[in-house]
Write a structure and sequence with these properties.
The protein has a single domain, classed as PPM-type phosphatase domain (Phosphatase 2c, domain 1), CATH 3.60.40.10. 29% of the residues lie in helices and 24% in strands. It contains 7 helices and 16 strands.
Length: 320
C-alpha cells in the first residue's frame, strides 16, 4: 500500500510551530490507520490528541477487528471519551484550544472515515482525477448543525465579510476541546451532560464507510489546501484533479509537489494556513473475471482471522 505525507507551515511560522498534526500507522490484520488534526487557539489540544488518539483507535480495533458496525460504534465512543479526557487535564492546560480530527481506518475490504470539523477527506480515481466520495465539513451554517447550536442556547453569527461562527468565535461546529463553547464556565467541565448532544460544539463524529474498489486514492488534508487568494474556497473535485496531476509512484514526492503548487498560487513568501496532505493508495487488485478480492495471502489471513471471531454479548469481536 503506497503512502505519502507532506506538510507546510503557514502564516510565517517556523517548524515545529505549525498547529497541524498527522499520523499513519500499520496494524496487524492488514489494517492501516491515518489521520489529520488541525489545531487552533493553541497547541495543547492538537498535541495531546496526536499523543493519545491513535493509540485509542488501535486499542479499539483489537476488540472490533473488521466488523464495520462495531468499528462505527467504537469510533463514536472513543471520540467522546477523548474529549472528556481532554477536559480532565484541567483548564490551566487546555485553556481555549481545540482541534479538528479526520481519521481513516483502512481494512482489507473497506475504508472507514470518521471526522469532526472541517479537515477534508476524499477518495478519487488516480487515472482520471474524478472525485469518487467526499465528506461534508461541520460548519455552523449547516442547517442541522445550526439547529443543534440554537437548541443549546448558542448563537451563529453571520457578520458581513466573515464566516459564520459559533457564539461569535469558532468557525467549526464540531471539534475536540474548545470548552468555552461547551461549558457555561470553560474552567468547570460539565461531565454530567450528554457530550454527544448537549453542547454548542460537540466531538461526536460523522462516519462514512466506503467499500474499496479497483481504483482509489484516499486523501486526508487540512483545510489550508482549499484556501485560495480570494474568498472562494477551492472545490474538493478540483483538489482531486490537482493531486492527480502530481501523482506518481512516489506518494511522498507527489504530496510535496501538490503543496508546492498550492503555495505557488499565493504571494511569496507563503502566508497561507498550515497545510498537511496524506495520500494512501487503497486500490484492490482485480481477478481475471473482474471481481475484487484481496491477494491470496491476504485472503488466507482474513479467512483464518474470521475463524477466530466469536460473539460476546451480541457484539462481534476480532482477535488480532
Amino acid at each position: 500500500m503506497k503512502v505519502g505525507v507532506a506538510e507546510i507551515n503557514g502564516r510565517g511560522r517556523s517548524p515545529p510551530s505549525t498547529e497541524d498534526r498527522h499520523f499513519v500507522q500499520t496494524l496487524p490484520g492488514e489494517i492501516t490507520i491515518a489521520g489529520v488534526f488541525d489545531g487552533h487557539g493553541g497547541l495543547f489540544t492538537v498535541v495531546h490528541t496526536l499523543k493519545e488518539f491513535p493509540n485509542m483507535i488501535a486499542n479499539m480495533l483489537t476488540h472490533t477487528g473488521t466488523d464495520i458496525t462495531a468499528i462505527e460504534n467504537g469510533l463514536k465512543e472513543i471520540f467522546i471519551t477523548h474529549d472528556k479526557n481532554l477536559a480532565k487535564q484541567g483548564s490551566i492546560r487546555y485553556r481555549d484550544s481545540g482541534s479538528t480530527a479526520t481519521i481513516a481506518i483502512i481494512t482489507p475490504t473497506h475504508c472507514i472515515i470518521a471526522y469532526i470539523g472541517d479537515s477534508p477527506s476524499c477518495i478519487f480515481d488516480p487515472s482520471t482525477g474524478e472525485c469518487l466520495t467526499l465528506i461534508e465539513p461541520h460548519l455552523p451554517s449547516n442547517a442541522k448543525e445550526k439547529e443543534r447550536i440554537l437548541k443549546c442556547k448558542g448563537t451563529v453569527t453571520t457578520d458581513e465579510g466573515d464566516a459564520p461562527r459559533v457564539n461569535g468565535t469558532l468557525m467549526v461546529s464540531r471539534a475536540f476541546g474548545d470548552f468555552s463553547t461547551k461549558f457555561k464556565d470553560s474552567t468547570v467541565p460539565e461531565m454530567n451532560k450528554n457530550w454527544a448532544t448537549d453542547f454548542c460544539v460537540i466531538a461526536l463524529p460523522d462516519i462514512k464507510v466506503i467499500p474499496r474498489g479497483p481504483k482509489g486514492v484516499l486523501a486526508i488534508f487540512s483545510d489550508g489546501l482549499v484556501d485560495t487568494s480570494s474568498d472562494e474556497l477551492k472545490p474538493i473535485p478540483d483538489v482531486c484533479k490537482m493531486i492527480k496531476e502530481s501523482l506518481n509512484d512516489d506518494y511522498t514526492l507527489s504530496a510535496q509537489t501538490v503543496l508546492k503548487k498550492h503555495m505557488a498560487q499565493t504571494e511569496s513568501p507563503y502566508e497561507g494556513d498550515d497545510t498537511t496532505l496524506i495520500l494512501i493508495d487503497i486500490s484492490l487488485p482485480q481477478t481475471q473475471t473482474g471481481g475484487l478480492v484481496p491477494s491470496t495471502r491476504k485472503a488466507k489471513r482474513f479467512k483464518r482471522a474470521k475463524k477466530q471471531t466469536k460473539r460476546i454479548e451480541g457484539l462481534k469481536t476480532f482477535t488480532i
